[in-house]
């Protein structure tokens, strides 16, 4: 009795391990994994982080600079009051009082570039969501294709067994029997190809999820009732992340141009330095002249730089004009995306209804032809044609089903709905 209990305990442990090792993945979980693990998204996040660090870097221009310097001289010949050896040490605190407002403009440019990077990151997130949905749907589509071909093969296998019996009884011509066998072999090859397509589709989904291991994951299907489109307001398209990113880049260019124009204005710097002088390398102070404090206020104004500033301002003007054109083109492209996606959804919805009806008719047709074949009224060719028709109807139905969801997913991407 004790041995039986131990065996049952071991079996239960094995069963629990097997159950815990199996898991399923739904679409929402796949999207969440992609947003967390996708490598392209991680790279873009680092770009945004760098843009924030650039703002911190621009803040350094508002702080004073502290410099320490030490110099030592040893001469083979002396001139005038020079000594054979001397050394000096200085500590200088400097601060820029005015530089044509370049620091302010450059900081504002960094802030706009950071906002642009943030909008680009948001846009990429929505792209990744759509790509994840496409890969997820592609896998389910390939899986349904496999099931359809397996069903086709099963029907041909049953037809082959029946045809073989009829052939052996002399009720079926050899040519008809061989044709059934060829059809069954072709269906088997379709199954092999479909299995390979399923494997590739799963790997593609895994890559989008950042290499997440899906080998022990079952991918859940979604119900037709979940295919519901949202309310889309066309005016929201003007606030798409891609457009906002370009607008922020445009503002950054304007600030960079303003910073460049600061070169036309004078600069004003203040500096306070403390200097100490020594007789030699050993820090022996010079009697009566060992230290010095110096306060300096300097102003400079470049009157001509060979046209460099003027040319750079002209370059910024060209870049600004180009970016304005890109914004207009992007807005037009987004509107076109919307109209195309809306039309695609309408077509997909009609195709889904038609495919549903066609599948129902193909199923009924196969049942009728199969029963007539068993009664000897229909030929083997009629049954083969009915099988092909049923397989084609199943594939068209699955394609229409997923196309409808893909159209909605595309519209959600256009309006940045997760």
From TrEMBL:
Subcellular locations according to the entry: Cell outer membrane
Signal peptide feature range: 1-21
Gene3D superfamilies: Outer membrane efflux proteins (OEP)
Coiled coil: 233-263, 345-372
A Pfam entry, by short name: OEP
InterPro entries given in the database record: OMP_efflux (IPR003423), TolC-like (IPR051906)
SUPFAM superfamilies: Outer membrane efflux proteins (OEP)
Keywords carried by this UniProt record: Cell outer membrane, Coiled coil, Membrane, Signal, Transmembrane, Transmembrane beta strand, Transport
UniProt-listed PANTHER family: OUTER MEMBRANE PROTEIN TOLC
Family, as annotated: Belongs to the outer membrane factor (OMF) (TC 1.B.17) family.
Name recorded for this polypeptide: TolC family protein
Organism: Arcobacter roscoffensis
């Amino acid at each position: 009795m004790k041995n039986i209990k131990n065996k049952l305990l071991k079996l239960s442990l094995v069963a629990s391990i097997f159950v815990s090792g199996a898991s399923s993945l739904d679409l929402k979980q796949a999207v969440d994994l992609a947003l967390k693990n996708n490598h392209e998204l991680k790279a873009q996040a680092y770009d945004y982080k760098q843009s924030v660090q650039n703002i911190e870097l621009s803040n350094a221009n508002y702080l004073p600079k502290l410099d320490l310097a030490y110099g030592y001289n040893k001469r083979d010949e002396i001139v005038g009051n020079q000594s054979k050896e001397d050394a000096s040490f200085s500590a200088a605190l400097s601060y820029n009082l005015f530089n044509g407002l370049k620091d302010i403009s450059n900081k504002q440019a960094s802030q706009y570039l950071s906002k642009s990077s943030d909008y680009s990151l948001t846009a990429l997130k929505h792209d990744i969501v759509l790509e994840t949905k496409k890969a997820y749907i592609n896998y389910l589509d390939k899986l349904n294709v496999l099931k359809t071909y397996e069903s086709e093969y099963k029907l041909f296998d049953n037809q082959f067994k029946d045809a073989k019996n009829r052939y052996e009884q002399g009720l079926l011509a050899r040519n008809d029997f061989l044709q059934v066998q060829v059809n069954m072999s072709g269906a088997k090859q379709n199954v092999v190809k479909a299995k390979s397509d399923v494997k590739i589709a799963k790997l593609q989904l895994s890559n989008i999820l950042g290499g997440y291991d899906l080998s022990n994951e079952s991918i859940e299907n979604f119900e037709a009732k979940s295919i519901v489109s949202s309310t889309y307001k066309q005016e929201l398209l003007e606030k798409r992340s891609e457009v906002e990113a370009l607008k922020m880049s445009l503002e950054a260019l304007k600030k960079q141009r303003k910073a460049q124009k600061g070169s036309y204005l004078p600069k004003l710097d203040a500096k306070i330095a403390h200097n100490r002088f020594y007789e030699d390398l050993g820090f022996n102070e010079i009697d009566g002249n060992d230290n010095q404090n110096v306060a300096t206020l300097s102003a400079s104004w470049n009157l001509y730089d060979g046209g460099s500033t003027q040319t750079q301002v002209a370059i910024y003007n060209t870049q600004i004009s180009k970016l304005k054109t890109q914004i207009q083109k992007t807005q037009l492209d987004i509107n076109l995306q919307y109209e195309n996606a809306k039309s695609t959804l309408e077509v997909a919805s009609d195709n889904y209804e038609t495919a549903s009806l066609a599948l129902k008719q193909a199923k009924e047709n196969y049942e009728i032809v199969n029963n007539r074949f068993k009664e000897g009224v229909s030929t083997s060719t009629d049954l083969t044609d009915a099988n092909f028709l049923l397989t084609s109807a199943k594939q068209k139905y699955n394609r229409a089903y997923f196309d409808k969801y893909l159209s909605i997913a595309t519209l959600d991407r256009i309006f940045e709905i997760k």
